[in-house]
Design brief:
homodimer; 157 residues; alpha+beta; Arc Repressor Mutant, subunit A; Dna Ligase, domain 1; 3-stranded mixed β-sheet; 6 helices; DNA-binding
Amino acid sequence: MQPDPALPNLNQEPELLKTVLNKEGFRFTSQRQKILDLFQSAALGHHLNAEEIHQQLLDQGEKISFSTIYRALHVMVRLGLLQELELAEGRKYYELNTPFMEQHHHLVCVHCGNVEEFEDATMSQVGSSESTSRGFSLLNCQFTVYGICPSCQSLLG
Amino acid sequence: MQPDPALPNLNQEPELLKTVLNKEGFRFTSQRQKILDLFQSAALGHHLNAEEIHQQLLDQGEKISFSTIYRALHVMVRLGLLQELELAEGRKYYELNTPFMEQHHHLVCVHCGNVEEFEDATMSQVGSSESTSRGFSLLNCQFTVYGICPSCQSLLG
DNA sequence: AAGGCTATTGAAAATCATTTTCGCTATTGA
DNA sequence: TCAATAGCGAAAATGATTTTCAATAGCCTT
């Protein structure tokens, strides 16, 4: 799922979640706040999947259902608060959305699954020029590089 | 699934499939040939998912099971004949693998799902320099741009 | 502050793509 | 030619995500 193009992507301010939700007819709930908190307390650019969110909330004593997690993630993607990533292997990851020109990209080890982030302004430029030249309105772009990380290379001989 | 980095990606020659398969201990079967034929008869860079492969083979009077399709796709990805794409929406697409420096990338309309391809050598350069600077051995990279296509923009007003 | 409308929740069932199991068949290499 | 076993199809299993539904809670109006 991709964000609604008409909506701004504001976050970082405390207690803004309610405002952003209500502006679009969604309701503020403690579950949505707790999920967003997880992303905001993690390192910027750290990505989580539904399973990890569920586990982290359990660890801090919060009980929440998977349906609620998935619904909250979809809403926050639509509001531009989160970005959905297709890293690999059949599940979706989410991370805090960042302003377009600061988007980072991913280097995935296909052996151990480890993911490193990197930034490169070229991506946004190419994505932007490519989409405007074809009349697309740009939402976001993902550059994912697949390879084998140094430690897996030595393991594999 | 990503290709085995040690293996070359040869295709286009007729009857090469058997050779490539046997070289790695896999067996040549008519089902695998038919699947590869679909990709080779389609426009270069055209991507297909398992469902579409199954349907196209049914349309031409061939009966094949989904398990066989999935197994064949995995084998051909491992052999470097096909490349697996994570375009969007929970299913995997496959296309003929191309030499690394000629890889193309995708512009996806998140509204109608239409996908356009484009080439840009910058991607491969960035992917390559990024992975070598971190000691990764590079397999491939995917640049996916999400937006809304012109016709959907007018539909949405 | 109270009340109604309805979005949201949790639990369980349902989906959907993909993977695995298993008995049978077909390909490869000797 | 023939045995060993990779691959096949059908059906069951899996795993992530989505939907259903009755109960609850947030938001708006009064």
